[in-house]
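Why should sequence recovery work at all? Because a backbone constrains its sequence more than one might expect. Tight turns favour small or flexible residues, buried strands favour hydrophobic ones, and helices have their own preferences. The token representation captures these environments compactly. In the example below, the structure is given first.
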């Protein structure tokens, strides 16, 4: 019984103590202190509305109703900077007994954070009071403010950047901020969803009082977006954004990172970071919005590049400038061979790929990058030592080729990829001294032309797929080949025997030179002046090659020479038709008969014309003779017979009139 009485007394004592402690908690004072402290630190008013309730369990403190933090006066949005359904504040009982409010915990339920930057770069999260204090010093706290743990749950963050037009949205935000000492280290961890992808931030800094005022302090941060992670270890501040330290970035998930930044970034292709994209270096941000990466190392799949990069703010978008030196570069075209080259379908492919080409990344940033590499393997084109300047301006990329070794020759010129309002590609390229066999093998899987040549090409294609681009190609160019051989076709043997068995493996035509010019319209290459000179044969050619439809319609007019001086011989036109995958060769014997009949008709017409001319000459001679004998008229070299006859008649009449006049005058 006594134990029961003692337990009852103890319980009653605990209740009395609890009631007394609750009565001791000055809830309004705590709320006012928090508001005053916040406004003193930031220059912004914090509004605590609704009933402020004291709380004993599980910790001593208060719970508020709705709370908000005023936006900047200049902000375009009518929403507050911060709003939450409730705010829970935990205090230190010992400090409270001594007359001091010391915050142990601060949590917000379903907060909404609205961040904004105007066209001039002014940010609403930069508080006026943040810049107070001695230059370069660490400001002392206004009070003994500490925060063992501050948290938000189920929040949302919206960032409207009116400078770039970007809008960033984060939902389901859970974050924890710990400030054990206002003048000491602090930590911030956060998770959220961005476009359905998980985002996480882990930040550790020193001297919170200085950081809160925008000063640069020791800082370590890690940001994860989807499969991408960005790490920083150095010093940094946020008003303005400034940093100096080591940067490590694993950009394996660019779409998720782009969604976080409010940009539409696509997954890179093979060799450009499709499976692996990492960047390391020393990052410096000077507070002007510019970022400088020194000693940068970039790994994109199997490719490695080193150099320096500068990211500079612009009116509409950032501009990336840099100089990069690479090792051997390999940029694949994928297992299905999107380019239709030798190892990707080649001449036997039925058509060009119709998949849409995504160049949206060109519009995300402007660029001016000098690149040097010992070799570049594009899958369908293999290049040697290369130096190029790559510029991107408003989604239009220009590759200015300063040096490019390829197939034992050189390539110069420029190549353009224009992503403004669709996709177009074009350029002006000059190829000097290139080996044709390996070049055509890589480009089209065709190894039958063995020579060294010079080429000029000017072209433009429009479309969102390789198929559309090839079918829209227009341009012009020329080619000139030196000594070589055309494998798979013995033109001289075929002409001498009129047998198509001279087409196929083991057959070839050796030539001394080949040249011609061409134009391209609607994806069709037209040529009318091809000339081939060989020891036993000459040939001219005219026709069309369907670059878009991969078709052939070409007439080769070879002549097998019979004499050493190039005269005589046999000429039989060779028709090449069909598709690239299945070309058809046919001797145009019908055209020989037709041309022979046309030639005989022309010869007969010429003979008739000669006979007519001869008859006319004979008649003229006879008339001239009669004029001379009968009228005594000599026909001048440049005088017609009619004029001569008229002149003779006129002279005769004048002579008779003269004689008649003389007789009258003489009285006869």
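From this structural description, the recovered sequence reads:
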């Amino acid at each position: 019984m006594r134990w029961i009485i003692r337990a009852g007394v103890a319980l009653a004592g605990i209740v009395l103590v609890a009631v007394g402690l609750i009565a001791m908690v000055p809830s309004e004072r705590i709320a006012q202190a928090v508001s005053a402290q916040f406004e003193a630190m930031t220059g912004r008013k914090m509004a605590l509305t609704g009933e402020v309730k004291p709380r004993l369990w599980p910790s001593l403190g208060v719970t508020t109703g709705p709370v908000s933090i005023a936006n900047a006066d200049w902000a375009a949005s009518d929403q507050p900077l911060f709003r939450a359904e409730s705010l829970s504040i935990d205090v230190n009982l010992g400090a409270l007994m001594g007359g001091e409010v010391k915050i142990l915990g601060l949590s917000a339920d379903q907060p909404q954070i609205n961040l904004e930057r105007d066209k001039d770069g002014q940010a609403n999260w930069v508080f006026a009071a943040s810049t107070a204090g001695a230059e370069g010093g660490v400001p002392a706290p206004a009070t003994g403010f500490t925060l063992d743990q501050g948290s938000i749950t189920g929040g949302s963050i919206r960032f409207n950047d009116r400078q770039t037009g970007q809008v960033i949205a984060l939902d389901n935000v859970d974050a924890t901020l710990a400030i054990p000492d206002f003048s000491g280290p602090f930590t911030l961890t956060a998770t959220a969803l961005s476009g359905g992808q998980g985002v996480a931030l882990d930040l550790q800094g020193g001297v919170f009082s200085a950081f809160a005022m925008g000063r640069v302090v020791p800082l370590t941060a890690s940001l994860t977006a989807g499969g991408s992670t960005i790490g920083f270890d150095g010093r940094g501040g946020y008003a303005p954004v400034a940093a100096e330290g080591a940067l490590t970035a694993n950009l394996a998930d660019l779409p998720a990172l782009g969604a976080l930044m409010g940009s539409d970034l696509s997954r890179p292709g093979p060799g450009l970071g499709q499976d692996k994209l990492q960047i390391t270096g020393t990052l410096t941000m000077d507070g002007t919005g510019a970022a400088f990466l020194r000693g940068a190392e970039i790994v994109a799949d199997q490719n490695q590049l080193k150099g320096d990069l500068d990211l500079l703010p612009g009116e509409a978008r950032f501009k990336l400038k840099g100089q990069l030196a690479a090792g051997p570069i390999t940029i694949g075209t994928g297992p299905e061979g999107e380019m239709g080259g030798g190892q990707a379908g080649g001449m036997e492919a039925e058509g060009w790929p119709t998949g849409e080409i995504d160049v949206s990344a060109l519009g995300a940033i402007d660029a001016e990058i000098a690149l040097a590499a010992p070799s570049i393997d594009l899958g369908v084109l293999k290049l040697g030592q290369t130096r190029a300047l790559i510029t991107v301006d408003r989604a239009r990329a220009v590759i200015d080729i300063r040096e490019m070794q390829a197939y034992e020759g050189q390539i110069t010129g420029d190549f353009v990829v224009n992503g403004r309002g669709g996709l177009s590609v074009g350029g002006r390229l000059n190829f000097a001294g290139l080996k044709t066999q390996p070049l055509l093998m890589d480009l089209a899987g065709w190894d039958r032309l063995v020579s060294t040549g010079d080429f000029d090409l000017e072209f433009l294609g429009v479309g969102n797929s390789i198929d559309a681009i090839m079918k829209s190609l227009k341009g012009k160019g020329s080619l000139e080949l030196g000594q070589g051989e055309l494998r798979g076709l013995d033109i001289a043997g075929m002409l001498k025997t009129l047998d198509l068995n001279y087409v196929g493996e083991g057959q070839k035509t050796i030539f001394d030179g080949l040249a011609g010019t061409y134009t391209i319209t609607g994806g069709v290459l037209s040529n009318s002046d091809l000339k081939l000179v060989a020891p036993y044969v000459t040939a001219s050619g005219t026709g069309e090659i369907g670059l878009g439809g991969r078709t052939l319609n070409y007439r080769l007019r070879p002549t097998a020479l019979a004499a050493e001086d190039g005269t005589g011989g046999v000429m039989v036109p060779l028709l090449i038709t069909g598709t690239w995958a299945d070309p058809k060769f046919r001797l145009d014997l019908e055209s020989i008969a037709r041309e022979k009949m046309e030639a005989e008709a022309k010869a007969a017409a010429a003979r008739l014309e000669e006979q007519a001319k001869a008859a006319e000459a004979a008649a003229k001679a006879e008339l001239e003779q009669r004029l001379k004998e009968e009228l005594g008229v000599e026909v001048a070299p440049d005088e017609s017979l009619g004029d001569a006859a008229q002149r003779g008649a006129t002279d005769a009449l004048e002579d008779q009139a003269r004689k008649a006049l003389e007789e009258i005058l003489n009285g006869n």
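A few observations help interpret the result. The two ends are 200 Å apart (CA to CA).
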